[in-house]
Amino acid sequence: MRHQYTNRAVIVMGLLFVAFSATFALVALGGGGSDRVGQVLALDDHDLDAGRSLYLEAVGSPCADCHSLADAAAVSDRASDLDQLRPTPRETVVSILGGHIGAHESRNYRVELSDRQLADLAAYIDSVAGG
Ligand code: HEC
After folding, report:
1. Whole-model pTM?
2. What integer is the mean pLDDT of 65-86?
3. Which of 78, 91, 125, 126 has the smallest CB count inside 10 Å?
4. Residues 6 or more apart in contact with residue 4 via CB below 8 angstroms
């Protein structure tokens, strides 16, 4: 009898552990990882004017502070010139979400910019950079 109880407890603990691990994995993956990049890139019908405004104003730390871009009349030598870099929308989104050597880690973009805003911003840069 005693023995049976012990087995049941082990099984219950095991199930709890599996449930806990699965939840943890989902939260970790959903928290701004590659899934979000795919979600942003899947959006279309971009508002390029909104993208340009974000470039100049985004959440109190505009891209224009650090990245030159002629179309936005942005001049700065703090980071790469986006007219020369000509990032693809994927590169821009990955970078803003913190994937590129943490350059934007200290900014609040990941939290404060919606998927739609990220998509508009990346499309805007793609449409004007280098041209
Ligand atoms: C405080 C300065 C700063 C701000 C503000 C900033 N960046 Fe950056 N960014 C950097 C630095 C530093 C790097 C890494 C070195 C480099 O490429 O110049 C970088 C890299 C990049 C890259 C290149 C990524 C790659 O894969 O090489 C892109 C694209 C980019 N930023 C876009 C943006 C956009 C869009 C914004 C606005 C939402 C922004 N950055 C705001 C400093 C900044």
Report:
1. 0.79
2. 97
3. 78
4. none
